[in-house]
User: Fold these one by one.
Assistant:
Number 1:
Amino acid sequence: MNIRLEQVVKTFQSEGGAYTALKGIDLEIGAGEFVAVIGKSGSGKSTLINMITGIDRPTSGKVMVAGQDVHALKRSRMAVWRGKNLGIIFQFFQLIPTLSLVENVMLPMDFCGTYPSRDRKRRALELLDRVGMAEQAGKMPSAVSGGQQQRVAIARALANDPPILVADEPTGSLDSKTAESVFGLFRTLADSGKTVVMVTHDNDLAQKVRRTVVVADGEIVSESVLQAFPRLDIDQLSQLQPLLGRREYPPGAVIIREGDEGEEAFIITRGEVEVSVRGADGRETLVNRLGAGQYFGEIALIRQVRRTATVRAAGTEPVELAVLGRSALRDILGQSDPTREDMDRLIRQRMEELALHGLRGRHA
Ligand SMILES: Nc1ncnc2c1ncn2[C@@H]1O[C@H](COP(=O)(O)OP(=O)(O)OP(=O)(O)O)[C@@H](O)[C@H]1O
């Protein structure tokens, strides 16, 4: 694992009182992954990024980056460690205005003492070439466009060949065409084996990344929840997140029982469950097995019927669930017609499966 956050909490103390910007974040990012971090303004994205780069310290919890406990580093060692392991790219490039582009790219090598000094310029020029800026190497930052400055900032981030690139809104101040080409550069870098973590407001770009981490109200929306409700937008997910409860069941435990009243629906965030129904002869038949990213318990809530099946925790590990009460489910479906349509379709399919087991009309 290249980046691992365990129960990271960040509370800011200010005159108005304490504000918890991160509420116990668990996150793992593997080597070579390309991850987009998205979320509403103020949700905690930058705070999360600052935990990874060591720019800010967590109030509690642990942050491991490239095998190092970041916040166990002494302040004096932090800057050099960061310089060698992380390439950091900001929205506003932050090139040094009094240095030429090639000098800007040489700076991290000078700072960390990586590469012999006679090789640094050649390496900087190679990196500028890689981002399509070699011909402008001698220019000052103010003499090139924003998109070009960001390319140089990326070359600078690559100076010490760090395994991880962290970018906070790298395309935020670029027009969409330039943003697209800078994004393409990140993709090429990820394809070449770099781990890339990129905060973005741009949903179109986020869609193009294989893995999306959604931050809502200081928490990460479970990837299973994203999978269960793929058609919710960021605002809807941000509203859903605080309504979700968490529950765990040991293997074999009954989560819902056929014939009972139902008040909650469940999204599986870890493990598997078995769905079974009682036949006319009273014997139970297994009708389905569901895993992470799938939901159950919705039929009773939507169709206003008793539980149509019994669901048990399966496997040998505890099953973890996100729990959604009746009114929360109603709220979210009321806001997202596509999600409502998906759920209606799934319910029809599930009712048909139950009917196949000779149960039509028993509870429906
Ligand atoms: N130094 C600080 N002191 C007090 N509160 C802070 C501090 N830094 C951030 N916050 C608060 O923490 C919350 C999360 O901020 P953060 O900058 O991480 O959000 P964000 O998702 O990056 O937003 P944006 O997309 O607008 O940059 C905000 O409510 C912010 O006001």
Number 2:
Amino acid sequence: MIDMPSPTRPLKIGTRGSPLALWQAHEVRRCLMAAHDLPEAAFETVVIKVTGDMVQDKALREIGGKGLFTKEIEEALLDGGIDIAVHSMKDMPVEQPVGLVLDCYLERADVRDGFVSLKYASIADLPEGAVVGSSSLRRRAQLALRRPDLKLVEFRGNVQTRMRKLEEGVADATFLAMAGLTRLGMPEVARSAIAPEEMLPACAQGAIGVERRIGDDRVAALLEPIHHAETGQRLAAERAFLRRLDGSCETPIAGLAEVTGDQIWLRGEILRPDGTAVVSGERRGAVAEAEALGVALAEALLAEAGPGFFD
Ligand SMILES: NCc1[nH]cc(CCC(=O)O)c1CC(=O)O
């Protein structure tokens, strides 16, 4: 028997305060309510400010360091201020701090990037020399690789800020993850969804993860029924790939695993930040070998890239 949370002793859910983060925290709450037949009042949402939210005027990679969106939330989890933390898995470092574990994932949503523009329908539709706004090293490198004629400018902020910048003519187009747009109820903001063959998504894009304290058996039992096994297998491959590449926001890396039955197919790519070079590959294997597959693909790409690839 699990000791269930209740209105007098609610489960504290830690999250960032952005509309997307709140939606995701409420989605985890909704899944837990349904799995255990609990009322909303059995949960408390605790909003935590993180470094990445406080600094809005710089490209994130200038601030440096991993876990810009997670450090303060993980501290609250470790000191007992919250019981679980809800994250966009795409933003999560590949290793968790000692004492925490991240092994519960909701079913993954659309993995694709969305093409957002007031004037053009797709990347192919962009005229020569068009201006594209993005602060994602991966998207910038992927675009520069395919369309060296385009001009790239830094672009940050929430969806509304970015749309305003498009209206002001700061850029002709930008990219946003389809998962985020769909969760915010505005998928139509994207003129088109970009196929993975054209722009391979970030590892773990579109997946929501729930972090907890190691040894918190009560919370582990609560989370068990909301975990989506196939998403777990896909992320095991993608995050092992990223971990072996020592992935951080400093390195343009893309990776996507797909599962069919007991088989897993992993595609990955590493790019030079200026888009002048790319090394890509794929591996197929048994789902049980998901992590080994990720490591093997990473090592193959590193060997092909050779030393100095990122210099
Ligand atoms: N880096 C920010 C971030 N983290 C997660 C999402 C979208 C939701 C997701 O991919 O799960 C976004 C916005 C974006 O890249 O457009």
